[in-house]
Design brief:
15% strand, eight-stranded mixed beta sheet, globular, 297 residues, 11 helices, Rossmann fold, alpha/beta, 8 strands
């Protein structure tokens, strides 16, 4: 379905029983809602599953110059208010995780619980208001920056070429991954297909504020998460890991019902990876069992 957030039309996929409790799934930067296809059948046994394409991503409108924290958070709020119609569980990866964190801080009336998958929480060191950000300063030395540069340059050309998702997925399988090895060695086949689909639809300029470090902070370092929250960190030894465990611990310390877990060996694309998807699923569903109830198999 399509909804409107100001002048921007957004795409929201809707699966499961419309009368079931809602869960909103938020993708990472340059991705789209299809990155969550693998978990929809499991979640739909219990939830109404909503997958938002952020502005500039997937089937949502492009909005050049409007790719910032406030815009992405407002997209998520629009999906909750207009589609869910009630507070919901929010689960997001990377950009989606930072957005889920922002909702847990500032829009907790709309959130039942939050799961944040390797979200950008800020810079390592003593946490403080200037340390919590999402942009180039956070990613200095991170192999994702080179990946972003490649996507920024190649995505427009790929979109103009007429290449199919299937052919591009095959090319991506042989491409080097930021975490090491090739994407084909690292990722599930459905993740390769979702990556290809995202590259053929994304407005590559979504990366400009991140690469330049001009994107405004998603988080307030001194504000607790006001709802039960789980931070899932990639292995900090991986070159593309984003969530710093020391900052995750900081938010655990100041928040009433927040926990975090580090998945050993996992890179930033946690739920896409052959070696870490099942562990992420277990961590996320186990957390939901504890804080939402009614168990998930």
């Amino acid at each position: 379905m399509r909804i409107r957030n100001g002048s921007i039309e957004l795409h929201v996929a809707d699966d499961g029983d419309p009368s079931a409790p809602p869960i909103l799934l938020l993708h990472g930067i340059t991705s789209f809602g299809g990155t969550w296809d693998w978990i929809v059948p499991t979640l739909a046994e219990r939830f109404r599953v909503l997958r938002l394409d952020f502005r500039g991503h997937g089937a949502s409108d492009r909005a050049p110059g409007e790719y910032g924290a406030m815009g992405y958070a407002s997209d998520a709020v629009a999906a909750i208010e207009q589609v869910a119609g009630q507070p919901c569980v929010v689960m997001g990866h990377s950009l989606g995780g930072a957005t889920a964190a922002a909702l847990a801080q500032r829009h907790h009336d709309l959130v039942v619980a939050a799961v944040m998958e390797d979200p950008p929480l800020g810079r390592a060191g003593t946490p403080g208001p200037s340390d919590v950000a999402d942009g180039a300063p956070v990613l200095e030395g991170n192999s994702l920056l080179e990946s972003f540069r490649t996507i920024r340059e190649s995505a427009p050309r790929l979109q103009a070429s007429g290449i199919t998702v299937e052919v591009l997925a095959g090319l991506l399988a042989a491409a080097p991954a930021a975490a090491g090895g090739t994407f084909g060695e690292l990722l599930h086949p459905d993740a390769l297909a979702a990556m290809a689909g995202s590259l053929l639809t994304v407005d590559a300029s979504v990366l400009d504020p991140v690469m330049s470090g001009t994107i405004v902070s998603f988080l307030d370092a001194d504000a607790p998460f006001q709802v039960p929250s789980l931070i899932v960190c990639a292995d900090p030894s991986k070159p593309d890991a984003v969530a710093d465990p020391s900052l995750a611990q900081h938010f655990v310390d100041i928040s009433p019902a927040t926990e975090f877990v580090v998945l050993s060996g996992a890179g930033h694309l946690v739920h896409d990876e052959l070696a870490s998807r099942d562990r992420f699923r277990s961590a996320a569903l186990g957390f939901m069992d504890r804080v939402v109830g009614d168990g998930i198999d």
